[in-house]
Write the structure tokens for this entry.
Amino acid sequence: MPRAPAKSAPAAAKPRKTASPANSTEARPKVRFRMRITTGDTIAIGPGKIQLLEAILETGSLTAGAKAIDMSYRRAWLLINELNSALKKPAVESGKGGEHGGGSVVTDVGCRLIEHYRNIETTAAEACKAEIRALTGLLAAVTSLE
């Protein structure tokens, strides 16, 4: 009677590599402050609106600014409309569209809004440096699976 071949012990499972940054030796904790100022249920000022203002400032256009940060034109328009409605004076003024488009201008108020928001982020990060170091020190060490 023929014998079945002897079964070998199963090979030890190898750790699977993934594209996750947590499995990279280059992964470092990234600390981001995400301040929001609300009026009622509306986020009057927040990180998305500031990022959009910066993109409009750089491109001179709501459409181009939205594209630059992978945002739909409709979403960008809604955010700017909401922002302008929350402020005493508008942060962005847009010209009428046409053959060459109307363009959008970040006003002095919009520029001051960006400046104050970014200064608050910088000041907060500096003021919390020791706490941030302690907090990130609690994270598990990142190792490579190579």
User: Anything to note?
Assistant: Confidence is low (pLDDT under 50) at residues 1-5, 7-19, 142-146. The longest helix spans residues 108-127. Residues 35-93+105-136 form a domain with the Arc Repressor Mutant, subunit A fold (CATH 1.10.10.10). The CA atoms of residues 44 and 85 lie 9 Å apart.
